[in-house]
Amino acid sequence: MKKGIFFALLFSLAIAAFLSPFASTSPDGLERVAEDKGFIHLSEGKEVVKSPMPDYVMPGLENEAVAGSLAGVAGTLITFAVMYGFGKLYIIKSRRVGGRQ
Amino acid sequence: MHIPDGFLDTKMIAASVAASVPLVGVAVAKTKKVFDDRQIPKMSVMAAFIFAAQMVNFPIAGGTSGHLLGAALAAILLGPWSAVLIMTTVLIIQCLVFLDGGLTALGGNILLMGIVAPWVGWWVYRLAAGNSTNRTRVLGSTFLASWLSTIAASVVGTLLIVFSGHVALNIALPAMLGWHVLIGIGEGLITSVVVAYLTQVKSELVFQNQKA
Question: What is the ipTM of this complex?
Answer without folding.
Answer: 0.93
